[in-house]
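Service request form, structural biology core

Requester: graduate student, group of Dr. S.
Request type: structure prediction, single chain
Budget code: on file
Notes: please return the result as structure tokens.

Sequence provided:
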Amino acid sequence: MANEEDDPIIQEIDVFLARSLLEKLYLFQYPIRPASMTYDDVTHLSAKIKPKQQKVELEMAIDTLNPNYCRSKGEQIALNVDGTCTDETSTYSSKLMDKQTFCSSQAASNVSRYAAAVYKKGELHLTPLHGILQLRPSFTYLDKADAKHREREAANEGGDSSQDEAEDDVKQITVRFSRPETEQARQRRVQSYEFLQKRQAEEHWVHLHYYGLKDSRSEHERQYLFSQGHGLAENTELIKSPSEYLMMLMPPSIEEENDKPMAPSNVLSMAQLRTLPLADQIKILMKNVKVMPFANLLSLLGSGTDPTAVLRCVQQVALLVQGNWVVKSDVLYPKDTSSPHSGVPAEVLCRGRDFVMWKFTQDRWVVRKEVAAVTKLCPEDVKDFLEHMSVARINKGWEFMLPYDEDFVKKHPDIVQRQQMLWMGIQAKLEKVYNLLKEHLTPKKQEAQSAHPLLVSGEQRVNMAKAKVKQNYGQLEKELQKQKAEMKSKDTSAKTDVPNIRIKEEPVSVEEPMDTSAHEGLNNGLVNGLHPGQGPPEPVNGHLPGDGHLPGGCIDRVAQELKAFVSSTFKKQFVLTLSELKRLFNLHLASLPPGHTLFSGISDKMLQDMVLDTGCKQILVPFPPQTAASPDELKVYALWEAGDTYDQHRQVLLEIFSKNYRVRRNVIQNQLSQECGEDLNKQEVDRVLKVSFCSLW
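Core staff response, request fulfilled:
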């Protein structure tokens, strides 16, 4: 008791379990790096993996310009491995050991006790690890050097022993016939080390694309380390109710279980369902119903169920489509299963069904032929996908089976925003897998569309803003005239009350514009998707842009927050297009709590002005007139001075690309050598390009 009193509890930390990267997260343990291979300078040239064996092979570049690098030793190793001739089969094309290969081995056979933890704002988020791999240097290049050395010795000995060639040509051959292999011999052969090595060697390598630590896609994937519903309620995966905890401590005996009446394996009564944990109840209901509004789900779970706990659990097994919850594909098609119609693996089926769900987030109607053409699946599988969540209409296509749930969308905007971010990630994966065209990404207009889609397009947002402004414009004009009349009446009353006092009046024009130079950066450009030339501006924070009603302190806070975001973004990625910057800003907004100052409305012009104020410059790249890029993709901004060793190289590259949008590598190499006074080789030029244009690489 005395020890417990001397050791009080200082802080309690909430623990959440994240499942987005379940069975996908690996921990790589790198060896201690030499001084010539720091974390900032290491560049991953290539990466490949054997998934069944959980074997990874990475090829990393060595900083040969580091003062700790021994150049003579590197040249000697390259000479021993490749010899004097250099061709495509050479290991070191630069005649210098400028790269190192690392192979992995499993550090632990059972990793169920390990997890990756992220601590943020007083919360600890845990993600279970699927594997722990130790990376160790591979010295296969020494074997290659020994093989070449033996070949040279054999060639030298072959010239001296030319007299014995006639005798060596005649050799005795013994012919043997193999006996039929018994079952015991076959089992011994299968369990032998040579057979296992042969099977491992037969598995093909899968080449991977490596994204650096500062890449925007890496930052997007790191968001999955946080629990999706961590702000709603306590995590029921880690906290059990008293009855559930008692059941875990004292499970029912086998005799009591045998006394229960037998029922079909696919039938579960509501009484039996409510004895299960809440997460299992929701999973079973969604798996059987497949599409359900949130109100119906609450009614099936019974009275007294916490809605916030239901919201947290339903996000683990379902996705939001048009305000309704649709069961996830991996719940219907678990791992290591296949299609009953075509035998296609579950992974392919999940991608195809995700594409159908994503199409319904864009529109209420989906055409079956379009789904089959994109997914390349058999008609039976596509029909199953559509029957899960839609109804066939003659001569129209397939319509989503439930109406748009506006009540849920209005009550839970944070859930809607989080689901939109998840759909953005799913859309990016589908674009990469299916090579989707623009016609697949833009929603088709329907004449008889009865509800609004979940993802509102820019054109629809503009039309809604115009209608809203036209509706309120007359009322605002009346209030303005009323205020002016009151001001005039006050002035006249003041003059009549004090007739002996004469006040010098300045001529004031009614049409004189108000000085809003302090708020000019907040009110110009694109505001919530509305351009200035597309009708009256939409209100920001309840006031029209430029009316001068935004408090000065709020403006300063918004400017400070925006400047901090722009500065940190360009310090990670030195060159960005306006389109990529807006995408990163939307991701930043999604991670902020509701009511943050940045939600007051940030226009495109304010974002661009802030970029220029933080020391960046716009690079006028001469793109061809027939380019298919959007206007935001044609605007390129770069951080001119970052304070690192690559400032001069980066400025030379930006000057080159301001004159031509496509430049050959040898031209870049010659220009860098002339301007910087350094003789850079191919690997050094690649490193400069990757460091300077990491976001566009």
